[in-house]
Amino acid sequence: MALAPLLIVPLAALLSAGLILLLKPLLQRYALARPSARSSHRVPTPQGGGIAIIAAALLTAAVLAAPTGIAIEGVELPVLALSVIVLAVIGAVDDIRPLPASLRLVIQAGAVAAVVLTAEGRLLPDVPLGLERAFAILAGLWFVNLVNFMDGLDWMTLAEFVPPLVFLFALGLAGRYAPEPTLVAGALLGGLLGFAPFNRPVARLFMGDVGSLPVGLIVAWLLFRLAGQGGLEGGLAAALILPLYPLADATLTLLWRLRRGDPVWQAHRSHYYQVATVNGFSVPSVVGSVFAVQAALAVLAGATLLWPSRAVTLACLVLAAGLVGWLLRRFATPRASSA
Length: 339
Prior knowledge:
This protein is mainly α and 339 residues long. Helices cover 72% and strands 1% of the residues. It has a two-stranded antiparallel ribbon with strand order 1-2.
């Protein structure tokens, strides 16, 4: 095995951690998140660590593209990088001075559309291309925002996305995933791991919108590329299973808030993982449970690719849904206080 692919994750992690150490004094001064009624933290904490995550991922991918045998041809990767930068800039501005929700949504939609319209592969070959792309843009826009919504607890984003990224990177090293998304998955994985020590409960640094929005876009693109590998048994089922916990938590919470008539664009603390902390779960137990479930989902996703049959795929989808449903129910149930 060539050495260059194995360097992707550690190089991105070291670069991410180094950038955080350099940037933290500036973030402490200019990007301080102060506690509010909807916050999970109790003391002012700097945010904006996502700058280092995204910068490390982009730089590592750019530097190691040629050594890993990837020639940057066409517009897919440049458009992805540019769209990621646009979302990072918008997120950075919003972290310091909140922007109108309508403006954020328009810019996000443009970035997602650019990525979807230049991405390789088809999700549903039997569906007209225009209809498929429209669905993919809406799904991508929701995914970008749900990643942002789910970044409300120390280590939560890492618990949700480190297992899928490990899976995708390993899949690529095994030759079962295209080289370009393999490179990007490894670079983003490294960026998140470099950020992890600073976000460990109780966090000394938050990711901020500057990180969560572009992370959502990158992961959405990675899942799109996986789903485009060929039908339900070829990658689509695996792409649905991998992000199932954050997808279910955010989507069910949105539907519940819509039903109650709540303004869904406003910040809140009604996600299942947030309710869990009110119900007596510690932050480490919440993120540990999410990490374990996401790791189990990665195993189920792998099973759909190792044994590509309809029976195995349906069984894995049912098991994945049951596992996520069990965790959501557990989080929604108050823990019995010890006497």
